[in-house]
Amino acid sequence: MNPRQRRGAVFLLLTVVGALVVFFAVLSYVGDVTSKVGPLTSAVRLKGDVAAYTPVTPEMLETVDVPERWVSPTTVTSVAEVVGLVAATDYAAGSVVQEGMLVPRPGIQPGFREVAIIVDAETGVAGKVRSGDRVDIIATDAGDEQAGVLPSARVWVSNALVLEVGLPQELAGSDAQGNFASTSGVPVTFALPAQEALRLAYVESFSVKLRLALRGAGDSEALPPSGLVYQEGNQP
Prior knowledge:
There is one protein chain. By secondary structure, the protein is α+β, with helices and mostly antiparallel strands. The protein folds into 2 domains: 40-103, Type Iii Antifreeze Protein Isoform Hplc 12 (Alpha-Beta Complex); 112-231, no CATH class. Helix content is 22%, strand content 33%. The chain is built from 3 helices and 11 strands, in the order H-E-E-E-E-E-H-E-E-E-E-H-E-E. The protein has helices at 3-37, 121-125, 194-206, and strands at residues 40-46, 61-67, 86-87, 102-103, 112-120, 134-141, 152-165, 169-174, 180-193, 209-214, 229-231. The strands form 3 sheets. Strands 5, 6, 7, 8, 9, 10 and 11 form a 7-stranded antiparallel beta sheet that branches. A two-stranded antiparallel sheet has the order 1-2. Strands 3-4 form a two-stranded antiparallel sheet. The longest helix has 35 residues, at 3-37. The protein is elongated. The model has no long low-confidence stretch (mean pLDDT 78).
């Protein structure tokens, strides 16, 4: 073997030794990380922001591998467990799904009905009522002067759960004089007991106007009878 061949053989040997050193260094590093992090497991995560009461589809979820020691017993590990449920409140993208974050959609329990009405976009909703809110539904009545019936405002449905608020749409109608008029209305869907769904359908058909009175978070207090109706001259 001439000197040139010997140098080539030495270089090749050094290259192989260097590669082995790098391999074992990487293997040692991976082993060290694995020993610190521990085994991995699956967890379900939200791909994007999810608003309250939004139905969850498979496209909104992803399964990721996370260290088992970082996962709580309530962490959801399979997309199939939560598809078809709705968000209990607003969640941000990247949130790892836990039991209780996604719940069955309200309004489908026995005895409840989903009912939708059109509410005046300006006086009824004003962009502040969202899915998951609780509202009192107030209707105004023009009364009958000849019959001695005074105009009034009445809470017809109290503490109603809002399932969905649609987009404003133009509605054709007529004013008190019978002239053509165009207004903007918003479809709002509620979850109500069957009897209250009937009350709402009735008042939507015969009232002058409907308004939604937004309740504060956690406010489920029943209104006293004196607080359900207002008539001019009949209140202190």
